[in-house]
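Morning!

This is the sequence you dropped in the shared folder:
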Amino acid sequence: MKFTNKEAILFDLDGTLIDSAPDLALAINHMLTTIGREKISENIIRSWVGNGASILVQRALSAQIDIRADLDPELVEKALAIFLEFYAQNICVATVTYPNVLATLKALKIKGYRLAVVTNKPYDLIQPILDGLELNGLFEILLGGDSLDKRKPDPLPLQYTCQKLGLSVDQCVMVGDSKNDILAANAAKMQSIGLTYGYNYGENINEHGPDASFDDFADINATFSHVNQYTLAD
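The structure's back. Tokens below.
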């Protein structure tokens, strides 16, 4: 498949560009032991990632993906603060980019595409990760899960990013590993690419109807030709 008449590509972060689960698990287990709970395996925590820090913490406190209705709000607030403080100080200990991410992003930039990050991760954590993994300077816009009133799978973050770029949804493509990314794109009427290797709660990303899907991030490059130079100069 070839995407045509596109000028910008929006990327999810966790599970798409980076594998952050090891550091998220470290921070979750620090939080749990601090409040006197038992640790949870990294594999289980990995299956809970993708809806932002608060949801991840509530899942950990519930010890399951479905958040318990009887969670104490004060405990959630305390646990979230412990988690965020520790995670901010240990944000790139074991986190890595997925294979071919950096080279592919650079190739897309050379072709003339404008790149943005649209994630459910808190905004203040995005730049330190990009700096730590040498992904800084590639993205024109960084949008976090707390940047707006709504987050993915709501279409607002995608619509807002298009507005900030001065582009229509038809000129942009969303790339992500989770149903939240694809559902947000579908709701925004934006084309999308699904990645099969990230965090999607054990579901097949193709069930949610991306326009294309890939096992390897590098395959994205072939779907985009050079941006029309006339359009860039217009």
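Headline: Residues 229-234 have pLDDT under 50 and may be disordered.

More detail when I'm at my desk.
O.
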